[in-house]
Amino acid sequence: MFSFFKKKPAPVPADAPAAASAAAAEPGAEPAGLGWLRNPFASPAPETPAAQPAAPAVAAPAAAPPAAASASPAGRTGWLLRLKSGLRKTGSSISTVFTGTQIDDALYEELETALLLADTGVKATGHLLAELKRRAKERRATDPAAVKALLAEALAELLRPLEKTLVIGAHRPTVIMVAGVNGAGKTTSIGKLTKHLADAGATVLLAAADTFRAAAREQLGVWADRNMVEIVGQEGGDPAAVGFDAVSAGKARGKDVVLVDTAGRLPTQLHLMQELAKIRRVIGKADAGAPHEVLLVLDGNTGQNALAQVRAFDDALQLTGLIVTKLDGTAKGGVLAAIAQERPIPVYFIGVGEKLEDLETFNAREFSQALLD
Ligand SMILES: Nc1nc2c(ncn2[C@@H]2O[C@H](COP(=O)(O)OP(=O)(O)OP(=O)(O)O)[C@@H](O)[C@H]2O)c(=O)[nH]1
């Protein structure tokens, strides 16, 4: 077992949490899906002498203001452009259906095919078509462009239950376990998430519970280094023990968040699925109630198989959320609609590239507009 320290983040000014938590707690201050994370549980900071200059809001660890850099209007606009370009492959084949001049059965048939090819699934496709016809009749839509706008509306409505903001602060540490098939983007997403948490001033401990692959631990170590956070790992040992040690260390060291990375596995590898369930159980022995979040990372390219993964991992682990990566360049982005229709587990984040800024919070309206604009 080794546990090494990677440099401590700068101490946080005492008055920062109060200001930021007030902002976070303000009703309606945070539109759904626009903040990286939220901490409505931060305890108010002690009074600060009036002469002391105000601390920058983003430095607050516990308060973790929802906005950080990514939710600034400019940052969000940049994200929307990347999202739109990332979803182009999925969106263009659906949009082509609306380039004609007539709304007739042929259009709806073509749309059905396009939605199915985008891996929207039979149920969600049926739902969207029925909704679209109803809306088109009700609004007396007469041209394909108007029908396309109605489709964007119906899709956003279908996807809305998937919107959820990651909340930290109700538990200290908030323990987040991350699972998924090999290469789905778990470690990269954990790295990006760590960066956002660290930027918001939260203290993070990473647990490298992929004890099989040295490269996976090294990869996580690079993210830990970059973000100046601590990491706990163990070569060739029991991944559940790493989870236990990390959560115990997170408690002892007063960390805000412990992120547990696990080895990739297929839902058909039953012994490995049982191992995941064991990691989950053992983490709960280190801290009753933990893990507070169990996230599945899905590769957006896997299409309908992603739904099978959601079902299998949810059955084994009782998922609390999803991260959908690699939506850039996929023609199968419709799978989010299938998930919303058949297993609506919240999507905390979506990814459209390998860069740090390519992972963002999921917003149903943004997604459907980016897809169908
Ligand atoms: N294009 C694109 N690539 C991504 C995205 N997210 C992750 N990747 C890439 O996907 C590859 C696999 O990512 P990892 O984070 O190593 O995946 P993992 O799930 O941890 O892999 P295992 O540990 O082998 O199970 C890397 O090359 C990442 O850079 C994304 O949103 N878009």
From TrEMBL:
Keywords: Cell inner membrane, Cell membrane, Cytoplasm, GTP-binding, Hydrolase, Membrane, Nucleotide-binding, Receptor
SMART domains from the UniProt entry: AAA, SRP54, SRP54_N
Sequence segments annotated as region (Disordered): 34-58
Catalytic activity of the protein: GTP + H2O = GDP + phosphate + H(+)
The SRP54-type proteins GTP-binding domain, residue ranges: 346-359
Membrane topology category: Peripheral membrane protein
Top EC class, one word: hydrolase
A GO term, aspect molecular function: GTPase activity
Chief subcellular location: membrane
Pfam families with a match to the protein in the record: SRP54 (PF00448), SRP54_N (PF02881)
Biased amino acid composition, Low complexity: 42-58
Subunit structure: Part of the signal recognition particle protein translocation system, which is composed of SRP and FtsY. SRP is a ribonucleoprotein composed of Ffh and a 4.5S RNA molecule.
Family: Belongs to the GTP-binding SRP family. FtsY subfamily.
NCBIfam families: ftsY
Protein name: Signal recognition particle receptor FtsY
